[in-house]
């Protein structure tokens, strides 16, 4: 019988019943697959998400951009600085509000995004490939539903299309 300061075998095995544990682990696995597929580009999944949003929403302010991918102001600032250093995006002050910073993808960023698309998609496909084909869309809908329903608990709000 376990003491108060030890876990029983049942407690350890219950990790497989904890959504947070499984989601965190699946995220780790997906990031590893993404980095494997996209190693030649030296871009993280978050940076790829930023480039993807900027490709369809040019001259977007940093706060709105962060909300589009669900990351906070401090994190988005660092991500944008690294992308700007590589010449993949530009940042400038807004003409309307000088405190507001706008970001836009550069032609080099668009070119990189196009080169990455197939390999990034392969990482996404590999992540859910173990599921039967007929379950994949339902799984993605369930994930989107959970994210939307629990959105208020995140560090920043996420706006799913």
UniProtKB/TrEMBL annotation:
InterPro entries tied to this protein: HTH_MarR-typ (IPR000835), MarR/SlyA-like (IPR039422), Tscrpt_reg_MarR-type_CS (IPR023187), WH-like_DNA-bd_sf (IPR036388), WH_DNA-bd_sf (IPR036390)
Superkingdom of source: Bacteria
Domain HTH marR-type: 19-148
Alphabetized SMART domains for the sequence: HTH_MARR
Pfam families xrefs: MarR
Gene3D superfamilies assigned to the protein according to its UniProt record, in alphabetical order: Winged helix-like DNA-binding domain superfamily/Winged helix DNA-binding domain
Keywords of the record: DNA-binding, Transcription, Transcription regulation
SUPFAM superfamilies named among the record's database cross-references: Winged helix' DNA-binding domain (SSF46785)
Protein name, per record: MarR family transcriptional regulator
Organism: Azospirillum oleiclasticum
């Amino acid at each position: 019988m376990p003491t108060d300061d030890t876990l029983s075998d049942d407690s350890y095995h219950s990790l497989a019943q904890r959504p947070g544990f499984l989601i965190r682990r699946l995220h780790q696995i997906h990031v590893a697959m993404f980095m494997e597929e996209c190693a030649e580009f030296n871009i993280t999944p978050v940076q790829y998400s930023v480039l993807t949003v900027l490709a369809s929403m040019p001259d977007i302010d940093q706060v709105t951009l962060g909300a589009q991918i669900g990351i906070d102001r401090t994190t988005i600032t660092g991500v944008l600085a690294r992308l700007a250093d590589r010449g993949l995006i530009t940042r400038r002050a807004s003409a309307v509000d000088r405190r507001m910073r706008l970001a836009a993808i550069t032609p080099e960023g668009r070119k990189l995004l196009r080169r990455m698309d197939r390999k990034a998609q392969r990482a996404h496909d590999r992540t859910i490939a173990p599921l039967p084909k007929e379950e994949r869309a339902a799984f993605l809908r369930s994930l989107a539903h959970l994210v939307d329903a629990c959105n208020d608990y995140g560090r920043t709000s996420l706006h799913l299309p």
